[in-house]
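Students often ask what a holo structure prediction actually looks like on paper. The answer is less mysterious than it sounds. You provide the chain, you provide the ligand, and the output is a string of discrete structure tokens encoding the 3D arrangement of the protein together with 2-deoxy-2-fluoro-alpha-D-galactopyranose.
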Amino acid sequence: MSGTAGPVPAERCFGDWFGGRPAQVWLAPGRANLIGEHTDYNQGWVLPFALDLGVTVAVGRRGDGRLAVRSRQAPGAPADLPLTALAPGAVTGWAAYPAGVAWALREAGHRLAGGASLAVDSDLPQGAGLSSSAALECAAALALDGLHGLGLPRQELATLAQRAENDFVGVPSGIMDQSASLLSRAGHALLLDCRTGVTADIPLDPAAAGLALLIIDTGARHALGDGRYAQRRRECEQAAARLGVASLRDVISPDGLGRLADPVLRRRARHVVTENARVQQAVALLTGGDLAGVGALLYASHASLAGDFEVSWPEADVAVDAAMAAGALGARMMGGGFGGSVLALVPAGQPAVGAAIRAAFARRGWPAPVFFPAVPSAGASRLRRPDAAGAGTDADGAGADADGTEADADGAGADGNGAGGG
Ligand code: GAF
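The corresponding structure tokens follow.
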């Protein structure tokens, strides 16, 4: 992500595309998920954390009632339409995510008087399973909320961003990614109970344990909208209905799943039930200071996602096996599946795991994977205006802190290491 001296690229683009300076600039990170995969839409538990990569949105008010959205990463495809014309199907492609957020805000009764111009920039790879879409939604949600002085709580913004994705874009995703982007705290994973919305910050400091979390972008690309994610969600709902429970969250032990006659539904349910248990076990280990112990849970999660839930893909399986053989404490596929990234827990400062994965890919003639350190970082934050540099405060009176972020309206201010990397 951009540094903090002078305008960030999204601000410069705003001037080039719309003229003048943006009123506000917001940064929303992508996420990794330590554990708890395909549990969010089953009202279970997840344990993601924010990354130090994300989406920046510079926003300014208009007077003509239109929404204009342009991205540095998609120069040829701006969206520009009256707010009143926003409806599912009216905008396609990447711009549907921010447009969907504006639509969801209006559907919830919020006025976006005069409209808005949004300049978007991102350093998150797309389709890598790191939630670039949710980061875009969350940055747009904060930008529109801030510009129009709505003051909505972050959990409500997460829900509106999810609604944009579900009902405007048409992808039936859960609430994990938006929550991680908006609610995470640096040095922690976010435990989220997806039924109650209750959260807890769970300490996650790999460096302090002599370990590192490594993201391996396998290069295989996924799209949540291709139907397979939705099919898994339907299978889970069918399994819950046949078991007579509101959701698979209500099944505590896999022992009773023999009642499901359909072996596919039985396997899907077994993944969700055992994954929920693994999240609880991971929280207990982390709370007790045993990050290394979480490694075995990551590997068990991968086996369950590959075998029972059948959402892994060949590059992920090869990366996980190579990582484990080279000394990783644990590794697993991450996100919706069928492409994207693997997360590995490795000894710090030892290149053996990366080298083994690279070699395994090369042997198969696959393009080299891309590695990122996964540093548990702060959730979304408002960036300081350049003219506030050195002054400590800006026109709103919200103080800028040392890394160029400033406390935002709902008090969930950024802390030391969330906004500066990349
Ligand atoms: C994707 C979805 F967007 C999330 O809601 C979640 O279901 C995840 O896949 C699987 O855990 O990232």
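The CA atoms of residues 285 and 291 lie 6 Å apart.
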